Amino acid sequence: MNVYAINNDPGCLRGGMALDIVATHILLGKARVEMESLLGTPDGTTSDEPYYELGQCSGLGWHDSILQVYFHDGSQVADTEILRHQP
Asked: Nearest CA to 38 among 46, 30, 50?
């Protein structure tokens, strides 16, 4: 899958990575320690759920975006999505 064809961005690697994570569900079922091993320490949290900043490169136009990660019972990744960042 060519993520750059989806977001029409020829050089934003973190946005492409986030699109791939959401499309492939690669984080689903992983523990927080496994997620952080793959992605590093989260940039912040919203409602106690971690997120990673993507900048303006996630396919949502010229708005800062985040990769939001949701956990089931705080133990395993249940879902991921790309959202506009609301600081």
From this structure: 30
Identity at 51, one-letter amino acid code:
Y
Q: Which domains does the chain have, with CATH numbers?
A: 3-84 (3.30.1450)
Average pLDDT over residues 21-41: 96
Q: Copy the structure tokens of residue 63.
A: 């708005």
Whether the CB-CB separation of 80 and 22 falls below 8 Å is answered with: yes
The predicted model scores a pTM of 0.78
Three-state DSSP class for residue 44: strand
Which amino acid is residue 42, in one-letter code? P
Beta bridge partners of residue 81, listed in sequence order = 68
φ and ψ of 54, to 5 deg = -115, -15
SS3 18: helix
